[in-house]
Amino acid sequence: MPMNMKRALGAISATALAALWSVPAAAAWTLNLREGVTELSREIYGLHMLILWVCVVIAVAVFSVMIYSIATFRKSKGAVPATFEHNTRAEIIWTVIPVVILVAMAVPAARTLVKIEDTRGADMTIKATGYQWKWQYNYIDEDVSYFSTLAQASNEARQVNAGIDVHSVDNYLLEVDNPLVVPVNKKVRMLVTAADVIHNWWVPDFGMKKDAIPGYINELWFRADKVGTYRGQCAELCGRDHGFMPVVVRVVEQAEYDSWLASQKAARQAAAAPAAQTAAVTTTNALETTTVLVANAE
Amino acid sequence: MSASQTHGHAAAHDHHDEHGPAKGILRWLTTTNHKDIGTLYLVFSLIMFFVGGTMALVIRAELFMPGMQLVDPQFFNTMTTVHALIMVFGAVMPATVGLANWMIPLQIGAPDMALPRMNNFSFWLLVAAFSLLILSLFMPGGGPAAGWTLYPPLVLQTGDAFPLAIFAIHLAGASSIMGAINIIVTIMNLRAPGMTLLKMPMFTWTWLITAYLLIAVMPVFAGAVTMLLTDHFFHTTFFAAAGGGDPVLYQHIFWFFGHPEVYIMILPAFGIVSEIIPTFSRKKLFGYDAMVYATASIGFLSFIVWAHHMFTVGMPLAGQMFFMLSTMLIAVPTGVKVFNWTATMWKGSLTFEPPMLFALAFLFLFTIGGFSGLMMAIAPVDFQYHDTYFIVAHFHYVLVPGAVFAIMAAVYYWLPKWTGHLYDIKLANWHFWLSAIFVNLLFFPQHFLGLAGMPRRIPDYSTQFADWNMVSSIGAFGFGLSQLLFPYIVVKCVRGGARASDHVWEGAYNHGLEWTVPSPAPYHTFEVAPVVK
Q1: A64 vs B: CB within 8 A
Q2: How far apart are CA A101 and CA A212, in angstroms?
Q3: Using the beta-carbon criterion (under 8 Å), do B458 and A63 form an inter-chain contact?
Q4: In this predicted structure, what is the pLDDT of residue B451?
């Protein structure tokens, strides 16, 4: 255990230096769900704790009776078996009480569910497309689109017998080259889909997870209220490198987001100019009109 | 159930010579005797348990530390996929079918299963099925690696293993359907005079309901995988969006099979526990009728909860609400069962022989699996739990210390009846305590991993998950090695040991027809039906 303590301390100081603190990086021996940084994730956490405590209370009650029976009604202690075979009153009680508890649980759960599914009034929309094995983010209405793949350091360290100590890699397997960037306190609607097989876009701190299914466009929303970097992973088996397509989201102040967006657009225009020329050449040579359409659409 | 055999054992012995088993290997190939076939099923499932268990150890060895040390990620996916297929269809289901073969005729006073030749056929089909599945591991492109749920489009990327795996499932399904038909026909037609349905032992009852579930859902699964097959080879697009099909349709069909399948594995376990707890409490099962109705309600509910496996596919709100509520309802009959088992022990006279120990561990640990199941029924929270190690912990709790422990309990309960020998109780106790400790070390930390955010089916993980994974892997190796005691104890018992009396256990006296026949149970029993009062 001292080893792990040291490891945890090391990770803590390293990340603290990086100023952007992300919870998962160093939380060893974690036991519980995290509260997250959205209204939904906190509500979900609250429901999780509620149902957990309900289960704990029932467990304590039921297990106490079991343990008491095992300890008390032993043949070795001279216990003589009773002959009763049923007890209608007891049976009604232990059928009705669970029903009442379940109804009491269902009400807040249903309320949160309605909220989760309400994607109206979003400030912005981003489409996430799952590929084997990367994500593509498409800022709808903003003409910004890019791929997000596992960071090179992680990718090198995760090869079989790479000989690299994975503890020396920052955010091992939870780092990407181009994270998703969103502004803080804005309702972001994600459209989730996939191009090949089923993937799943998941950021635990947002409390949200949705399957990315070819032919489907699923929706989810979040409104992160704390600046930071939040990490998740693909949560649907999608083939060989399923474990190696993380989701990283940087939540930043609006001003930082605006300048980031501007720089993305500028970079894109710079890249698009020569591409459009190439497309034009192709058209004249091969009378291939579709190429132009594709180039324009992009 | 007060039962008495009007015609003595002598009647059973009269024909012994002419109807004895064939000699040598032919006996096992051609047998139509329910006891032989029960033994075959049990031995087969034990072998599969170790094959599937070895695969689990490959998984846990790779997950022992972060970083990829041992296997390629694709092979890792093959291991998780085939481990599950083998454990579900090759270990747990055949074990309960084996117990059904052995015990249902003995429990209802029948001379054999109603359809003995089909019984033989259904067993050997299973052998063919798993030969195909294991062969598929050696095909170009590797074995099936899309998860035991075989979701398209991913599963369509499988190499040459694909048709082998599909045919394996077809054969195993056909085998299950035949087994189920046989059990229903046996129970409906061959009960001893006086044994009304509501006098049947609980194990027989749970199997009757299980058999109906099997007949209802195995053809559905066969249909689903057949559509996969035609999508792959004959250019249909049942599940391909590009051709107007629907990948989610597969999931609905699969889980319409898959959820009842879960109960197919656990209902016989309920039956076993309902036999063992009364015996070692020296008391009648509390609320027998309620137990029967609870089992039937669980069977019914199993057909209307399937999409709780799919809360994240993007179902409409109303769909999510329905499946959340119907799933929560399952807690009610399941609760009734747990309370009734507890009430059976209340004011009993308990002793703690190995079958009772395993049954008690079932009672505690299955209940823990039930709690995590209830948590996952809450759809909004399931958005966090879904496809993480939390679900892995949940279903292993209900399947390993649940179904598997119940099967172990059953073997330790009826083994002296089968062999005529008492087994080494001390060793069996060791087997129990090692299993009980390591199974928790193995699976309990997986709850924490899931809540911390570790997805399932990943061959490597972020360093934050390292600690609990190491604990879990240590538990896995401890659990796996402890299981080696089991075949040793069984083989030793078959070879010899102290003679077992007819009722074997003090509390089993007058506790059902199976305890009225001699130990070991003769090759043919109840050639003249006993009369049940």
Answers
A1: no
A2: 34
A3: no
A4: 96
What is the pLDDT at residue A251?
98
Domains of chain A: 39-116 (1.10.287.90), 124-252 (2.60.40.420), 268-297 (no CATH)
Q: Give residue B24's pLDDT band: very low, low, confident or very high (50, 70, 90).
A: confident
Structure tokens at A67: 């343990």
Residue A40 has pLDDT above 70, yes or no: yes
pLDDT at A29: 86
B188 within domain boundaries = yes
Strand partners, B531: B4
pLDDT tens digits, one per residue of B388-397: 999 999 999 9
Among chain A residues, the shortest Cα distance to B380 is held by A113
Task: Find the CB nearest B457 among A73, A94, A242.
Answer: A242
Residue A292's pLDDT band (boundaries 50, 70, 90)? very low
Rounded average pLDDT over A282-298: 41
Bridge partners of B421, per DSSP, are B499
Residue B70 falls within a domain, yes or no?
yes
Cα nearest neighbour of A26 on chain B: B464
The strands making up A218-222's β-sheet, listed across from edge to edge, are A144-148, A134-139, A124-131, A188-194, A218-222
Chain A with chain B: Cβ pairs closer than 8 A: 292
User: What is the per-residue pLDDT for B18?
Assistant: 53
Helix (H) or strand (E) holding A135: strand A134-139
Asked whether residue B529 is assigned to any structural domain, the reply reads no
In this predicted structure, the answer to whether residue B315 has a pLDDT above a threshold of 70 is: yes
Q: Indicate if the pLDDT at residue B119 is higher than 90.
A: yes
What residues make up the domain containing B424? 3-522
Helices then strands, each counted (H, E), chain B:
19, 2
Compute the average pLDDT of residues B405-419. 97
Task: Round to whole Å and give the CA distance between A47 and A107.
Answer: 11
Chain A's closest residue to B365, CA to CA, is: A63
pLDDT band at A86 (very low <50, low <70, confident <90, very high): confident
Residue B533 inside a domain? The answer is: no
CB-based contact A124:A139 (threshold 8 Å):
yes
Query: From CA B520, how far away is CA B244, in angstroms rounded?
Result: 61
Residue B313 forms contact with A (CB below 8 Å): yes
Residue A110 contacts B where some CB pair is shorter than 8 Å: yes
Mutation test of the interface with chain A: which of B59, B462, B468, choosing the one with the most A Cβ atoms within 10 A?
Answer: B462
pLDDT recorded at residue A147:
97
Q: What is the largest CA-CA distance in chain A?
A: 100
Domain total of chain B: 1
Q: Enumerate residues 3 to 62 of chain A having a beta carbon within 8 A of any beta carbon in chain B.
A: 4, 7, 11, 24-34, 43-44, 47-48, 51-52, 55, 58-59, 62
Strands (E), A149-256: 180-183, 188-194, 199-203, 208-212, 218-222, 228-233, 246-252
Question: What is the CATH classification number for the domain harbouring B464?
Answer: 1.20.210.10
Tokens of residue B119, six digits: 């019984």
- The whole-angstrom separation of Cα A37 and Cα A207 is 9
Distance (Å) from the alpha carbon of B318 to chain A's nearest alpha carbon: 9
Q: What is the rounded average pLDDT of the residues A192-216? A: 96
Which residues in chain B have their CB less than 8 angstroms from residue A48's CB?
375, 378, 381, 384
Contact list in A for residue B329 (CB cut-off 8 A) is: 102
Sequence-distant (6+) residues with CB within 8 A of A94 are B335, B336, B339
Half-sphere exposure of A187 (CA within 13 A, CB side): 13
Complex prediction ipTM? 0.91
Is pLDDT above 50 for A16?
no
| pLDDT value at residue B399 | 97
Rounded to a whole number, what is the distance in Å from the CA of A218 to chain B's nearest CA? Answer: 6
Q: In the predicted model, what is the mean pLDDT of chain B?
A: 94
